[in-house]
Write a structure and sequence with these properties.
Elements: H1 10-16, H2 19-22, E1 32-35, E2 42-48, E3 54-60, H3 77-91, E4 99-103, E5 108-112, E6 118-119, H4 121-125, H5 133-146, H6 155-164, H7 168-179, H8 196-203, H9 206-221, E7 225-227, E8 236-238, E9 243-245, E10 252-254, H10 257-277, H11 281-312, H12 329-361, H13 367-370, H14 375-394, H15 402-413
Antiparallel strand pairs: 1-2, 2-3, 3-5, 4-5, 6-8, 7-10, 8-9
Helix pairs in contact: 5-11, 10-11, 10-12, 10-14, 12-14, 14-15
This protein binds adenosine-5'-diphosphate and magnesium ion.
């Protein structure tokens, strides 16, 4: 079937013609469809039979949704999303939505409807706590990153996987809008006018600009593992018991720290947003402490699980077991592991810092901050974010544990 953009009516006809999908519903008679996409790129429909069965249909449009048809974008992004979802379902079962069907020509994927979950960004503003989240997300990160890296795969296996995830168009979006345009004159940049001075300083801070260029070079060239590459708190749906990562259309073979950095940077932006959302000091401090502890747990559990997977599965061509087979070799292997994981922490800080800055002065901020309508109050959080992001980037080479990142958050936010 040739590509056509679906709407609330045609999406139902489409599904009824797919025998593998129509079987998922108890009845064909009363299907209803609703477009719920609040994302920037695609359209997302929920189709429901009114008897407790529903699916999500996510279809790519031939342009960037936020920008309209003046900004063409290839449809193949849904191919990468589907491929990544299938891979993540194998590597981290239960932590991503199930895929029911994929239609290349229609540029759509049919997947599990997470109707008992909500986007993480929203409850974090309401100061909701998720006791199992750090355990779930650290498992997702450790397993998806380890099993797609050279620590687990042979050289040829890794190259073959990498070749399946050459995703140039969506990589280009991140290369431009995370690492480049926010830090120079570019028409789509937006910022709070009360930040003019801070932004001018960022844009002319030579040491910072060199470090951001170094992080961009890593993003463009360091193919460590198949990463999600857009792992913010709007790409996570969860409830008290269950966590799912959605929307991996940016997936490609890139640096692991980009995923961990995106996640903890979003948690810190939420932390800062509470200076405005939660004026009652006791409630604010108590939730902010919870968020810092969440960051600490996410990193520490990730590092622990990643190291364990590595010890249990030392199969990859980097470095094979025999390489360490000499007196003192196992101690050197342990030192190498420590060095490798510490570099991931430093990358996490560098990428997290770049992403934090771009949210303050680039094409898109985050909802947690943009809903603060009073620009003076918003500027308070935003200035802190600029200082934290800058220091995470500039000081990353001295970091040896997650407390090093957290103490900068405390110092710059006065907490
Ligand atoms: P985009 O790629 O356009 O950013 P997303 O994948 O982020 O699209 O989806 C947009 C919105 O649709 C999400 O914020 C979420 O509210 C909803 N959504 C996406 N996938 C699912 C799903 N599997 N189950 C329930 N809701 C979903
Ligand atoms: Mg998306």
């Amino acid at each position: 079937m040739a590509y056509r953009a679906l709407d609330n009516d045609t999406v139902i006809d489409y599904l009824l013609n797919q025998s593998s999908i129509s079987d998922l519903f108890k009845t064909d008679q009363n299907l209803t469809a609703r477009e719920i996409g609040d994302g920037n790129l695609n359209q997302v429909f929920v189709v429901d039979d009114g008897l407790g069965n529903s699916v999500i249909v996510k279809q790519a449009l031939p342009y960037l949704r936020v920008a309209g048809d003046s900004w063409p974008l290839t449809l193949e992004r849904i191919h990468f999303e589907t491929k990544a979802l299938k891979l993540q379902n194998e590597l981290a079962p239960g932590l991503v939505p199930q895929v029911y069907d994929y239609d290349e020509e229609m540029a759509l994927v049919v997947m599990e409807n997470l109707n008992r979950h909500e986007l993480m960004r929203k409850p974090l503003v309401k100061r909701i706590r998720f006791p199992l989240f750090a355990d779930h997300i650290s498992t997702y990160l450790a397993r998806t990153l380890f099993f797609t890296s050279d620590l687990y795969l042979s050289g040829p296996q890794k190259k073959s996987l990498q070749a399946q995830f050459i995703n140039p168009d969506l990589c280009k979006i991140q290369e431009d809008f995370v690492f480049t345009h926010p830090f120079m004159d570019s028409p789509e940049n937006q910022w709070n006018p009360l930040l003019d001075d801070e932004i001018a300083k960022v844009r002319s801070n030579g040491d910072l600009k060199i470090s951001i260029a170094a992080m961009k070079a890593k993003y463009m060239t360091e193919g460590q593992a198949i990463i999600h590459s857009d792992l913010h708190t709007g790409s996570i749906m969860l409830n008290e018991f269950d966590t799912r990562v959605i929307d991996p259309e940016f997936g490609f073979c890139g640096p692991m720290g980009f995923d961990i950095g995106a996640l903890i940077e979003n948690i810190i932006l939420n932390y800062l947003s509470h200076f405005s959302h939660t004026p009652q000091e006791y409630e604010r401090l108590s939730y902010q402490e919870y968020l810092l502890d969440l960051v600490r747990k996410i990193w520490n559990l990730f590092a622990e699980k990643f190291e364990k997977l590595w010890l249990e599965n030392p199969k990859g061509d980097l470095m094979t077991k025999g390489y360490w087979d000499y007196p003192g070799g196992s101690e050197d292997f342990a030192r190498y592991q420590k060095w490798y994981i510490n570099n991931l922490l430093r990358d996490t800080a560098g990428f997290g810092g770049c992403k934090m800055l771009r949210r303050m002065m680039g094409i898109v901020s985050v909802w947690d901050i943009t809903i603060i309508k009073d620009t003076a109050k918003r500027a308070v959080c935003e200035k802190m974010a600029i200082r934290i992001g800058t220091r995470w980037i500039l000081e990353r080479d001295r970091f040896n544990c997650i407390e090093d990142l957290i103490s900068i958050v405390r110092e710059e936010s006065g907490a």
